[in-house]
Design goal:
Length: 374
Amino acid sequence: MTSLFTINCCKSFGCKNLGLASSPDYSWPEYRLGYAALHCRVCGSYPPLFNEEQFRSWLSEYLTDFAAKSGHFCPRCYQRETIRYGHNPQGSQRLQCRSCKKVWTPKQQPLATIVPPEQIATVPLIVPFQGACTEQKLYVLFSFDAIRGNVLHISSNFTPHLVGDSLRYRWRDNVEPEVIHDDIVERVRQRETLFLRRSQFDEIQYGSAMLKRSANGAVLRPVITAHGHFRILSHLWPEVKTHIISHECFLRGATITAWAESFRNRHASLWFIDEEINDNKCTLPWQLRGKTDQGWWQNQWQILEQGSNRKMVCLLTEGHVEKGISITLAAGRNFLDWLRQQTEFQCSARYSAHSVFQAIRALTGKYNALIDKR
Ligand SMILES: [Zn+2]
Ligand SMILES: [Zn+2]
């Protein structure tokens, strides 16, 4: 169970300490890179340190809340094995945990069963909301079954739970330059440069996110949201072998930590992707047009072309490089195209962070129902 809460650990693929909460090879805090970091002597990496106690306290509330609502695992001990335990007086299904015997009635009824995904694809989206002043921004993460296309899980960096100060997002009025180059290779390069310019790799500055003065809850650092997000997914589906993420370095860290055991045992692969899709209907085969090494870690990216469409993929772990051709964010693209046409979503800037997230959640339910009918 401890691995569910591990956040301070080596995050390097190929290192024997990947995902381990403790190791004789660790020393911390180390300030060599200008921030408090853990140093792993085996691979030489310096992942930024988190306040473990504050993370644990937030994550346990988040997991409990998710479990109480969805019924996917026990809200008290987080075990996944549950049995149906009759109905409450209102006729709602009750569940009992096989392990600690807790009985509860999930709020989401009827209970949804989700087909276990083979591949998970994850994309972020910045969504406007009404906060202390207009045009505040929420950081939202969407994960999809990359093959079936349904939404598996969404998170935002608004949290109704109590959070320690170290987990809160702090806008320093210093927005990152937009990555807009029309050449996909240049875009990947720009983004890598941007990661290096941050005060630390996981400290994204995406815009102002001040809640209304009267609002409950808090706005989390997106890296914390990402760790919570992938913790839920890896807890539900520890066996997933293929992970596809948008090109953002802290999504890499959060994914590799959440499924650390699989990655350490070389049972799963993780891909960065960027796409430039001009013709959604194109059915030509993808062709490899070249390779390029990018960024601090000199990761090798493949450049692929299909008619007027281009994509770049980068295998970050064990895996078959030739599978790059089949790696796609189509599930995310299709959903976001649909989402942007929904009125509730279009007027998000008029509503509070909490309401915007509720509205998006309701829309994902609607979208999944459409996917099921196909
Ligand atoms: Zn290491
Ligand atoms: Zn339990």
